[in-house]
Amino acid sequence: MRGSGPLGRARLALLLMAAGAGARPRPTAPGDQPRSNVVLVACDSLDGRLTFFPGNQTVDLPSINFMKRHGTVFLNAYTNSPICCPSRAAMWSGLFTHLTESWNNFKGLDPDYVTWMDLMERHGYRAQKFGKLDFTSGHHSVSNRVEAWTRDVDFLLRQEGRPMVKLTGHKKHVRVMEKDWWNTDKAVNWIKEEAVNLTQPFILYLGLNLPHPYPSPYAGENFGSSTFLTSPYWLEKVNYEAIKIPKWSSLSEMHPVDYYSSYTKNCTGEFTKEEVRNIRAFYYAMCAETDAMLGEILSALRDTGVLGKTIIMFTADHGELAMEHRQFYKMSMYEGSSHVPLVVMGPGVREQQQIPNVVSLVDIYPTMLDIARIPVPQNLSGYSLIPLLHEKAESQASPRGPRPSWVLSEFHGCNVNSSMYMLRAGRWKYITYSDGSSVPPQLFDLTADPDELTNVAITFPVIVLSLDKVLRSIVNYPKVSSSVQEYNKQQFISWKQSLGHNYSSVIANLRWHQDWLKDQKKYENAIDKWLGK
After folding, report:
1. Taking Cα atoms as reference points, which of 76, 99, 87 lies closest to residue 403?
2. What are the residue boundaries of the Sulfatase N-terminal domain, all occurrences included (predicted)?
3. What whole-number distance in Å separates Cα of residue 492 and Cα of residue 489?
């Protein structure tokens, strides 16, 4: 049921903006106009399929819809690694994950790594960041990194609380995720008090935690984030009738890596349709709250008169499965997890354009440099989006020639017991694991099977071989997988040694403690056996 309650300031501002958005100036030639300001709003865990039909029927997202009407939406944008830090490391470096070696949430870029924002600042932009960054090493919980390091150990332990929903507040409770609103307010105030007075172009970044699930302290001392929390105000923005209940394979029919993921995410138990529908509804409501924060930024740009001089981008580090394929969270190459939103509006960007080309987050780096008219390094994994946004022939705009017809995503972290690699090309999505032979690959025809329910790898062996050849030309993935395995083992050994006599107590009380404490000696022996290999 869509709400007819208070529109709120953000909604009213959008209605005002719609009346004047068409008056934005258009550049005639790059050198004839001042460089555009840039605003990047990057949220956490928003399924990119919600930005176009039919996903956009499930929840009211007026700010994203406004950007689509006055800009461009990418229909096939992907994360380069479906987990927070590695994905963000790719976005801020312009390099694939096997090049940044951001193997898990603990290992990202060095703190002094030169990002696109650093280069823009050096070339005359005023740079400002607010909110979640999460692309450098050393962050996230001990549980998160230990689970990643030990994924090759021969045991199976639940690492998360059971996914659940929680309703808070009342029908006028708008600011549920207070930290995100606080950062949004800071960004709005900066636009109104500082950006408006600048004589130089600016680059503003706002990082949001939503719609990432909330922590679940009920799960014990060391807990994960498996709670989908919202208020009635946001839940009214959801169209319950449009919520699709995903089909699940039986546990015995699941791909072995999917089963491991589902089990460690505490999703192999029984769930009623009502539970699944509520989890998805609450998630969509959290997306609606995220959208409202984007609306505040758009309103501030409009109110200060700089909207027409500013390129705005909205994206996310990865998606959210929301119980598709019997999983929540990300750490998967299925569409719900790997498909991200990418919406762009501003000077020179064609309005009401839908771009079907496959793109990914590494494309942000060269795009930012293109906007700032900074020479783009030739060693980047990504390609500028500007030719697509301006409808120019890419071979004319880039000395590297046209962008590839594929995108690459890879994952090496927790909740998955194998390195995995995804190549999306045309209608096909190819997923392979580890050394390419020890775990069966997956192939999905996204045109015929958009829900990715039927693995057709055996049916189309020629396609599999062809896509695998392309993948191996990009990355020697068996070698990378082996390197990650060695890294995991060495990191765990160092961590274990640092704990000394406290090791047994510490490892028993990580997020998996509810299972671990049932047979502590068994699991310690499994780790010792792994270390002895």
Report:
1. 76
2. 36-372
3. 5
Contacts of 109 (CB under 8 A, 6+ apart): 89, 92, 93, 100, 102, 115, 135, 136, 137
Please state, as a whole number, how many other Cβ atoms lie within 10 Å of the Cβ of residue 436.
Answer: 15
pLDDT in tens, the chain (533 residues): 444 333 344 443 443 343 333 333 333 344 568 999 999 999 999 999 999 988 899 999 999 999 999 999 999 999 999 999 999 999 999 999 999 999 988 888 999 999 999 999 999 999 999 999 877 776 777 888 999 999 999 999 999 989 999 999 999 999 999 999 999 999 999 999 999 999 999 999 999 999 999 988 765 555 678 999 999 999 999 999 999 999 999 999 999 999 999 999 999 999 999 999 999 999 999 999 999 999 999 999 999 999 999 999 999 999 999 999 999 999 999 999 999 999 999 999 999 999 999 999 999 999 999 999 999 999 999 999 999 999 765 545 567 778 999 999 999 999 999 999 999 999 999 999 999 999 999 999 999 999 999 999 999 999 999 999 999 999 999 999 999 999 999 999 999 999 999 999 999 999 998 899 999 999 999 999 999 97
Torsion of CA 316, 322, 328, 333, to 10 degrees: -60
pTM of the model: 0.93
Residue closest to 151 by CA, chosen among 105, 96, 183: 105
Which residue do the tokens 């703190």 mark? 111
CB 342 within 8 A of CB 74: yes
Nearest Cα residue to 18 out of 69, 71, 73, 72: 69
SS3 assignment, position 412:
coil
